[in-house]
Specification:
Length: 130
């Protein structure tokens, strides 16, 4: 069975939020335990895990709320670095900064990501020549 990374992360979230071990979550997601351990160190994954756990703890029998939260997490995981989401008159650029990056590296990566995002929005709007 082939599963995409976002779906695998969603499956791991479900098991971890429910109290499963890293090994159990890895088996359910179809990845190695070291992969789940790596995901757990990622701030985005950690935030999503905390959010899913909160739903589990606050409304353990509300399966609909849990599934909606897991779908939101999967959508967030599926975003590619450099992707641009345009909502009305604002745009959100998705930037990936590796853990352990120095402040200078972060600044450089963010600046480059924002520049690429602006260029993409301008191209899509036909304003590249401005």
């Amino acid at each position: 069975m082939t599963i995409n990374t976002a779906a695998a992360k969603k499956m791991a979230l479900l098991w971890l939020a429910g109290g499963g071990t890293t090994s159990v979550a890895a088996e359910a997601a179809g990845v190695r335990p070291s992969t789940v351990s790596s995901w757990r160190r990622n701030p985005v994954f950690a935030e999503e895990l905390a959010a899913v756990r909160a739903v589990y703890e606050q409304r353990p029998q509300d399966v609909g709320a849990l599934m909606r939260r897991l779908e939101e997490a999967e959508q967030r995981f599926a975003r590619r670095p450099g992707a641009v989401t345009v909502e009305g008159s604002s745009a959100r650029v998705h930037i990936s900064v590796p853990a352990g990056a120095t402040p200078r590296e972060r600044e450089r990566l963010v600046a480059r990501g924002v520049a690429r995002g602006i260029a993409r929005v301008l191209r899509e709007r036909g304003e590249a020549g401005l």
